[in-house]
Amino acid sequence: MRRSTLPLPAVLALLAAGCGPLVQVGTPQAPPAVLLVTTAAPAPAVPAGRTPVDLARAVTVQQPLLPGPLQTLRIPVTVSETEVQYVRDATWAELPGRQFQRLVADTLAGRGVAVVDPRVSGRTAGRTLSGQLLLFGVDARAAPVVRVRFDATLAGPDGLRQRRFERAEPLASVLPVPVADALNRAANAVAADIAAWVEASGAG
Predict the structure, then answer these.
(1) Virtual torsion, Cα 10, 12, 18, 22, nearest 10 deg
(2) Which carries the bigger pLDDT value, residue 108 or residue 27?
(3) Mean per-residue pLDDT for 140-144?
(4) Residue 34 confidence (pLDDT) above 60
(5) Taking the model in full, what pTM does it have?
(6) Which strand (E) or helix (H) includes residue 167?
(7) At residue 23, does pLDDT exceed 50?
(8) Residues 6+ apart with CB under 8 A from 130
(9) Is residue 103 within 8 Å of residue 40, measured between CB atoms?
(10) What is the set of domains in the chain, with CATH numbers?
């Protein structure tokens, strides 16, 4: 697959305009003035008094696996079935897998699902959410859209459950702010779908 630089100022969310290439020979360019990040949508109020945590129904959210085009701070743009280009002068605040992991965990916690990080708590949750973040960028093969696709695996006492989640948002223009907003909306919609699925899987 050939990877090149998109000559237009197109970007994904969690990007920053005005940033140079990741590796540069010679005089370094100035760092980006702004880094855009995804944020979890406001969650409904959760009743208090849910402690102690039921570890059997608690969830550990793992960082998703990423395909090659997403294993970079640069912003991928799909232009054909066999070609991915990268947006010039744009970069993520951090790798998309880490951003998505945090977004899903925040969305679950906001809906009252106990989220456990074993590295912090030293405790093990009864369920583990993992998967592959297959799409998290711009699809420019026709009218440009932002696409988020996540293949989820939920492992728990009842075995394995798997499901694909995908959302798309149209783009009026492929510019930093509208693309960032569209990606944030799509990512939050996917995270909400995942949270509802996890809740339903743990009911009863």
Answers:
(1) -110
(2) 108
(3) 91
(4) no
(5) 0.78
(6) strand 159-170
(7) no
(8) 62, 64, 65, 152, 153, 155
(9) yes
(10) 2-22+31-38+55-201 (3.40.50.10610)
